[in-house]
Write a structure and sequence with these properties.
Order of helices and strands: HEEHEEEHEEEEEEHEHEHEEH
Number of domains: 2
Number of strands: 15
Bound molecules: D-MYO-inositol-1-phosphate
Largest sheet: 8 strands, mixed
CATH architecture of the largest domain: 2-Layer Sandwich
Helix content: 25-40%
Strand content: 15-25%
Radius of gyration: 18 Å
Oligomer: single chain
Number of helices: 7
CATH superfamily of the largest domain: Fructose-1,6-Bisphosphatase, subunit A, domain 1
Length: about 270
Amino acid sequence: EPPDPAQLLDLAVATVRAAAELARSMRAEGVRSVRTKSTETDVVTAADHAVERYVIAQLRERRPYDAVVGEESGSVNGSGSPVRWILDPIDGTVNYLYGLPVYAVSLAAEVDGVVVAGVVRNPVTGDEWTATRGGGAFRDGRRLTGSGITDLGQALLGTGFGYDAARRRHQAEVLTRLIPYVRDIRRMGAASIDLCLAAEGALDAVYEKGLNVWDHAAGGLVAEEAGLGVTGLAGAGPGPDMVLAAPKGIHRALHDRLVEFDAAGGP
Ligand code: IPD
């Protein structure tokens, strides 16, 4: 019988709480061993690796047959289990590096390729967002429902930029064209937190091209379970071309602007 999403969430939450404390304590000791990855702007710290190693070890101990995909070390293959864990050990690594208190440990569980449980935790503030598929989205026991706005002109949007120079140029052009039609833009620096803020209505909607699955798997479920539409563009699901999370009352209008401005196009 398939694993129970609530049980997967319990394991995810326990693991992420300890992992978040590890990330926070390493930051308090000072960040060492900063390296750049794909480009000069794409940084990784020793904490990214340490947190990933910790979470993978915990999951392997409790559920040895599951697969795990993590941002820093790639995948651990499963054997015969339908479960795959999706981990971003530190989402918002640049904020982490600078000491800005907006970063998260993000962990989701997929069963047969469908995300059924997810948790996003900010180690600094202790904010913790959770969701199970069909079971709703919560922060600190409070059920989340998004802002429910219906007018794109009143929308406070979150977005972000990739690490590749040509992509960022295109993303900045899209933003230039979109901003006259919305209330304002925030660039918080952690896509998982953006999605959770949209789930609680602290942002209205979120869009970003070029996200990896570990950036949006958990937060995307939180947003979806809060009642937002979470999609890509032109009938596609959320993925590398676009993750768009918006209250149903503005989803179509924002979607159509993003298509008009070719937000999923470019490098
Ligand atoms: C990044 C953050 C950022 C987003 C980038 C991501 P990382 O994740 O979520 O907000 O704009 O696209 O790559 O590298 O800090 O885990």
